[in-house]
Amino acid sequence: MWAEPLKLREAKNSMPASSHDTAQSLAAATLAAQLPHGIRSRQVNNGNGLNMHILEAGFEQSGRECVLLLHGFPELAYTWRKVMLPLAAAGYHVVAPDQRGYGMTEGADLRYDGDLSQYHVLNLVRDALGLVLALGHGSVAAVVGHDIGSPVAATCALTRHDIFRSVVLMSAPYPGVPAYRFDGRNSAEQAARVHQDLAELAPPRLHYQRYFCMPQANTDLLDCSQGLHDFLRAYFHMKSADWAGNTPAPLASASAADLATMPEYYVMAMGNTMPQAVAPCMPAEAEVSACQWLPEEDLAVYARLFATTGLQGGLQWYRAFASAASQAELLLFAGKTIDVPSCFIAGASDWGIYQSPGAFEAMQSRACTDLRSCDLILDAGHWVQQEQPEAVVEKLLGFLASRLK
Q1: How far out from the chain centre does Cα 402 lie?
Q2: Residue 7 pLDDT > 70, yes or no?
Q3: What whole-number distance in Å separates Cα of residue 309 and Cα of residue 382?
Q4: Is the per-residue pLDDT at 190 higher than 80?
Q5: Right CATH number for 35-181+325-402 from 3.10.300.10, 3.30.420.40, 1.10.630.10, 3.40.50.1820?
């Protein structure tokens, strides 16, 4: 397995400037070496406190419609590398940023006890809006969000449909805006009850989102016994179609007992770290060598960048999304639907479709009023745009064409 030649994992505020600059330069060089010809990397001030790192394709000609690609966790703009050039060849200006707290984007508060409001979903929408305007676009043809980037893309289309004129949701269904409650309870309290019920199972269990909110999670991931690179290898493998244990199906309910039937990368054994949860499914060397969708040199891009910046920025998203303050902000849009053209794309072997019981159905029945299609792509798990990029491009281009009819 690939091993880090340097200890790169210290965050910027805990290493000397010269050491951080060296680590950042090495990580940037690793990225540059792996970028396909025709995709460029640069920094853009988004007007919302960030010097955003973006990858873009189709930038040579002005006047093209923009397609904005928003990644999930633990991902980077680099996750879109396989779909960017085909979309650009179809005539689009394709832009993929490292989102707030990720990669080479600068300006986010990366401290666990820092300003969590930076990561509220409405501020992440402001990040996307500022980037679009900074690039000189008055609107985008589509905003595409994967994993935890999906609710950001959805909220972009919900709140600024004049700018984000269609939306593609990937891997994480969007059930709509939280509703006002008049029974004295809120969604944070409901979630706490589910987590308590999981802890009371025999044996006790822990939901991965609760784990990602814990103070030690970042250190657990960076300093795990197998090393960051091998942790990422096991994590990406276990959530892909390559792992035979992924046979997703709708859950009967959101009860602790039903949630606990999901794989342990979703509902972990209490007391385990995420690296410990996925370690038993680490692929053998022959499987790693045969993995064409994520070869070692591609995985090294993630490993080096996360070793340099840490993962706390990405983990803050889970804390912010679950916070009562962020949920309260969204109540301004209670009852509002996504009315621009939309579609959903996921891997057929992705448990993310069903991890929130009822979300997939709610997206189709009420949250999106102009949902053009729901496509579950064979031989793909959670990392669908990396595992089956040709199929994803076909679906994206078909959707982009359909919005003009």
Answers
A1: 26
A2: no
A3: 24
A4: no
A5: 3.40.50.1820
